[in-house]
UniProtKB/TrEMBL annotation:
BLOC-2 complex member HPS6 C-terminal domain span: 400-772
CC terms in the record's Gene Ontology section: BLOC-2 complex; early endosome membrane; endoplasmic reticulum; lysosomal membrane
Domain of life: Eukaryota
Signal sequence interval, chain numbering: none
Purpose: May regulate the synthesis and function of lysosomes and of highly specialized organelles, such as melanosomes and platelet dense granules.
Domain BLOC-2 complex member HPS6 N-terminal residue range list: 1-385
Protein name (record): Hermansky-Pudlak syndrome 6 protein homolog
Localization: Microsome membrane
Length: 802
């Protein structure tokens, strides 16, 4: 069904204070400036300097007194006036061309009163040409004395600068004014327009033609300025954060941006309009374009009628993807995406003003009814333009929505094939939760009991709603998004983390990984212990939620990661050095089916899968995960990799780090390193560590047998000394320490069990000296004494030296 645009009257202005004067000014002066307060309750009308009295009128909806000011001849009226986004009380700032600024407030007492007066140009010789208010900042463009240097153009063309000061409420009746910050030096005359998040610096009729095709967008929340030339299709982004002391000389800025100074005609724009999407501009051909905050420019559409000269009035605004343009007495609605004309209406007056929508979170009950459209103000009243819902569309009640949502929830958890229906939930006593919630919504529970029960939840939701309102308004954007992400992760961790909740958690981690990890850090109560490890005081049910959610051999659906893999991926991005301690801590937690001790994949394997393929993953992280896993195969794999890289110290430390509860694993690591010791001499310096790793039950015979197995094949007969340039072979001297180690550890108290153990045994005294005499060949039958001594291996002949 096709939707229809509606123009509905909200008020005839009779409920505003000073209604007669309000209608009179709106009907008399087509060039009057109209501003609306952030809460939508105040209307400000300011006439141009030199206009008849009164020049300023602030009308209030309700019984509060209006503010009316008039300046006699010879006393200039304000250049511009703005409401300040102060939620506690309404306030406005008036700025004169001379640089005088006055802050007025209401709500403390009856009527309006002057809160603060200051000079924006205290040095003198300067005057303000444009002013805007952006997120509590008063920004102005002032013209100063022209300097002697004018390398880019005439000196007078670049005699302006753009400055700002912060404005904050102080107590019940004061105002804090920050110091002056200069954004741009030596710039041309710029007009200033502000949306809720961005400031647009646009060329005016007095801007030097050589730069009349250039405009700038300053985003304080991002600390950047975008220089755009819409006619050239060029844009350049530069850092501009006054908090860090950033400032730019406009001429220097342009010299560093190639292509922007190409000879072009100045922009011929009839009307500018800031919106949340960017800056709208209407040219004299009736074409509406949008300069987006990232620098891109696109055509939105073309109006049926084009503006006739500068005298014709025009106003632009957007709502729900729709562009609204009031040109004279015609209202046209265009689709922002396609530029198609949706509706065209002829109004009864040509003096219509589009009002900015109230700031999110500051609407009252009446304003909430008009949300989703644009408000039009004229002398005939206050109107709302929006889209009318199709007739016959029934809005379900709150109780029906409860049971429909519960159906979807229970169906996801149900194992039966039958489809649940809302009627079944209403009458089946098994499903008590949706029935209890429906009873609350129907009013069966007293308000006091309900408020008492939900007090903490209501407080949290109120704080969250206020935070979202500040984000939409663009206040402290980075900190706000961080806090919002932390709230969302904390909320999701209290759910079952399945389906939509897990998808949403993945989205938060992808968009704001630092804030999401901070929320998990608090939920798990993780703290370093000073030894490179982590400890946690989180209850077991939290860890159960972290470690669960995966099955052996199953990939996550649609690229959605379970929580444990999500945390590993986030740590790998933010702090890779803490990933192995985190996995090691997770392995210490757990219970049956938690992922740490269950039948599924080991946690270190799940963490390795997040690092990517073997060819692309970080070798250092992989080694740490394998060594910290405690799994014999993983540790042996890690030691094997260390051996291949000849990192002998780390390989030995990995084996020595294993406690007495892993004798088999220590023995396997020892045999792996002993094989390398037999093959080459690069392990000789680490022999003391290798001795400490030697198994206590290893005998010298077994040691020699292991070494013999891994000795390199001899291609030539052995020689007493190695050839130059070749590696020396393994010698008995090198082996003696290991043989002594095995002999001392496994020496029996009884008879000798090994053929080599008598070599290692030191009796403490030398063997007996054989009798002196002439050299003779030993005869077993004639020398019984030597026969008994000879088998000890000390000698087979005796020489008589006497």
């Amino acid at each position: 069904m096709k939707r229809m645009g509606t123009l509905r009257q909200l008020s005839d202005l009779s409920h505003f204070s000073g209604a007669a004067r309000l209608r009179e000014l709106l009907a008399a002066d087509p060039a009057i400036k109209v501003r609306c307060s952030p809460d939508g309750r105040h209307l400000l009308l300011l006439r141009s300097p030199g206009a008849p009295c009164p020049q300023l009128l602030v009308a209030v909806r309700g019984s509060d007194a209006e503010l009316e000011r008039a300046w006699p001849a010879g006393h200039p009226s304000p250049l511009d006036a703005f409401f300040l986004p102060w939620p506690a009380r309404p306030a406005l700032v008036l700025v004169w061309e001379s640089g005088l600024a006055e802050v007025w407030g209401a709500g403390v007492g009856p009527g309006w009163r002057l809160l603060r007066s200051t000079e924006l140009c205290p040095a003198g010789g300067a005057y303000v040409v444009a002013v805007a208010v952006l997120r509590g900042r008063l920004v102005w463009c002032e013209e100063r004395q022209a300097g002697a240097e004018g390398q880019l153009g005439p000196p007078a063309a670049f005699s302006h600068c753009v400055c700002f000061r912060t404005l904050e409420p102080n107590g019940e009746g004061g105002t804090n004014l920050g110091r002056t910050h200069v954004l741009l030096h030596h710039c041309p005359s710029f007009g200033l327009l502000a949306s809720r998040k961005d400031l647009f610096l646009v060329p005016t009729a007095t801007t030097w033609p050589g730069v009349g095709h250039i405009l700038l967008t300053w985003s304080p929340g991002k600390g950047k300025v975008m220089v755009v030339a819409p006619c050239l299709g060029l844009s350049h982004c530069k850092s501009l954060n006054p908090v860090r002391g950033d400032t730019w000389d406009f001429r220097t800025l342009l010299r560093g941006l190639p292509g922007l100074l190409s000879p072009m005609k100045p922009l011929t724009v009839h009307t500018w309009a800031p919106t949340p999407q960017g800056l709208l501009l209407l040219d004299f051909r009736g074409t509406v374009s949008l300069v987006q905050t990232h620098g891109g420019t696109r055509t939105v559409g073309t109006l049926q009628e084009a503006p006739v000269g500068l005298a014709g009035s025009a106003a632009l605004g957007t709502f729900h993807g729709t562009l609204a343009c009031v040109l004279g007495s015609t209202l046209e609605l265009l689709d922002m995406g396609s530029g198609q004309l949706l509706e065209r209406k002829v109004l009864s007056t040509d003096r219509v003003h589009l009002l900015a929508p109230p700031a999110p979170g500051m609407e009252d009950e009446e304003e909430l009814e008009t949300r989703g459209g644009l408000r039009l103000l004229s002398a005939l009243g206050l109107f709302r333009v929006g889209w009318e819902a199709p007739q016959g569309l029934e809005v379900p009640s709150a109780e029906d929505l409860v049971f429909e949502e519960a159906c979807e929830y229970y169906q996801r958890r149900s194992l039966r094939g039958a489809q649940l229906t809302p009627e079944e939930l209403k009458h089946n006593s098994t499903f008590r939760a949706p029935q209890a919630l429906a009873s609350i919504l129907q009013g069966h529970v007293s308000p006091s009991t309900l408020v008492t029960t939900l007090r903490a939840e209501l407080r949290d939701y109120r704080a969250l709603d206020q935070l979202k309102a500040h984000l939409v308004a663009g206040d402290d954007e980075e900190a706000g998004w961080t806090e919002l992400a932390e709230h969302e992760v904390a909320r999701l961790l209290r759910t079952e983390l399945m389906g939509d909740q897990l998808v949403q958690l993945n989205t938060v981690f992808q968009a704001l990984p630092t804030a999401a990890w901070g929320a998990v850090l608090r939920a798990l109560q993780l703290q370093p212990d000073g030894n490179g490890r982590l400890r946690s005081h989180a209850p077991p049910d939290v860890w159960k939620k972290v470690l669960g959610g995966t099955s052996a051999g199953k990939e996550p659906p649609n690229g959605i990661l379970p929580l444990f893999e999500l945390l590993c991926q986030c740590l790998c991005r933010l702090e890779p050095r803490w990933l192995p301690p985190f996995v090691e801590l997770a392995q210490q937690q757990g219970g049956p089916g938690w992922g740490a001790g269950g039948p599924g994949l080991p946690l270190y394997r799940r963490a390795l899968a997040v690092l990517g393929e073997e060819e692309t993953r970080s070798e250092a992280l992989e080694l740490e995960l394998l060594l910290g896993s405690g799994r014999p195969k993983a540790v042996l794999q890690a030691v094997g990799q260390l051996v291949q890289k000849e990192q002998w110290q780390r390989a030995l430390e990995a084996g020595l780090a294993l406690g007495p509860s892993s004798p088999l694993l220590r023995s396997e690591i020892f045999k792996l390193l002993l094989a390398e010791f037999a093959r080459h001499r690069r392990l000789d310096a680490y022999l003391p560590h290798l001795r400490r790793l030697c198994p206590p039950d290893l005998t010298p015979a077994e040691l020699l047998l292991l070494i013999r197995t891994h000795l390199p094949d001899e291609l030539e007969p052995p020689t007493p000394f190695p050839k130059p340039g070749t590696e020396p072979p393994l010698t008995v001297g090198l082996l003696r320490a290991l043989l002594e180690q095995t002999g001392a550890q496994g020496r029996p108290l009884g008879p000798v069990l090994s053929l080599y153990e008598d070599i290692l045994c030191d009796p403490g005294t030398p063997p007996p000296t054989p009798p002196r005499g002439p050299m003779t060949t030993l005869q077993t039958s004639d020398h019984p004494v030597l026969e008994a001594w000879a088998p000890s291996g000390q000698g087979l002949c005796v020489t008589d030296t006497g």
